[in-house]
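Async update (no meeting this week)

Hi team, since we skipped the sync, here's where things stand on the single-chain job. The sequence we agreed to prioritize is pasted below, unchanged from the tracker. I ran it this morning and attached the output directly underneath so nobody has to dig for it. Comments welcome in thread, and please keep replies under the output.
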Amino acid sequence: MVTQPPELRERSAIKLFFTVPSLAWAEAKAADLGGGLLPQQWSGPGFVLRNAFDPEGNILQLREFLGAPESH
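Output:
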């Protein structure tokens, strides 16, 4: 059953991740589509990432690369 807001399914054996042009863009787009981004942000060498959720509560990860795209 899908609830509103969705109950987050944090205990999953798999977490998909996707590269996005920007986390700000992804946050706005996710909200338009019934999902959202969680507030905590992490960084690694050349990227930042945040966890997100879809309208069914599935958790995924979104990654924004920093710098010139040709270096990735």
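Quick observations from my side:
The chain is about 15% helix and 35% strand.
The first strand starts at residue 17 and ends at 19.
Reply here if anything looks off.
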